[in-house]
Amino acid sequence: MRLSHPTVDLLELCIGYGLILATIWTTNPAQPVLYWVAFAWIAVTAILRRKELDTHGLGARGLLPSLWVVGVAVVIAAAGIAVARYLHTLHPLYGPLPVITHVWGYALWALMQQFILQIYVLTRLLRLGLSRYPAIALSASLFAIAHIPNPLLVALTLVWGTVSCTLFLRYRNLYTLAVAHGILGMTLAVAVPNDLSRHMRVGLGYVEYNSHQQARRLVKP
User: Fold this and answer.
1) Which residue in 83, 155, 167, 183 is deepest, having the highest Cβ count within 10 Å?
2) What DSSP assignment string belongs to 22-91?
3) Predicted confidence band of residue 221 (pLDDT cuts 50, 70, 90)
4) 18 has pLDDT over 70
5) Which domain does 183 fall in, by range?
6) Within 13 Å of residue 50, how many CA atoms lie on the same side as its CB?
7) What pTM did the predictor assign?
8) Residue pair 19/37 in contact by the 8 Å Cβ criterion
9) Does the residue 145 lie in any domain?
10) What is the average pLDDT across 19-43?
């Protein structure tokens, strides 16, 4: 039996989102496997549906008119760093990677997240018949749920998800959103104390971080 387009859209979205959540809440060695399964599923199903999209958001359309978004992100980042300096919470990026590698890696990750949020989730919800604002609200909520149980990231991703989906429907460009996302994420990583941000971890990584920290406290003399 041939499935209708709305049924296929809903099925693809549910499987893709389910794989994302499974990856977040799975430990090694299964986690890397699930990551690439989720990546492959999203990539293949997105490519198969590309002809049904008004724009994939990766072209030049809307780039120049939306550059102000990057400017606003820079201003917010500067203010956040200034506050962190004043409160003495500014600290280096976590991990052994060189700063430039860390920044470029996060920039690509930000682009991937925006692609999933806008192209894979938002446009599918719109094709399923949701009107503009319910589709934005549901997309942002799904984005925030994927950052549970980190309360800081849940709150911030709910806000950013709403803002970025709204901006995408206006400009249809992922690049400015990804750059703004990267700037704000890097600022958060260096300005917010690690005990609060938990190194930006979500899912099982967040839970395990708490367990490791409690274990370290118990072994201290």
Assistant:
1) 183
2) HHHT--TTHHHHHHHHHHHHHHHHHHHTGGGSS--S-SSTTTTTTTHHHHHHHHHHHHHHHHHHHHT---
3) very low
4) yes
5) 58-219
6) 10
7) 0.90
8) yes
9) yes
10) 94
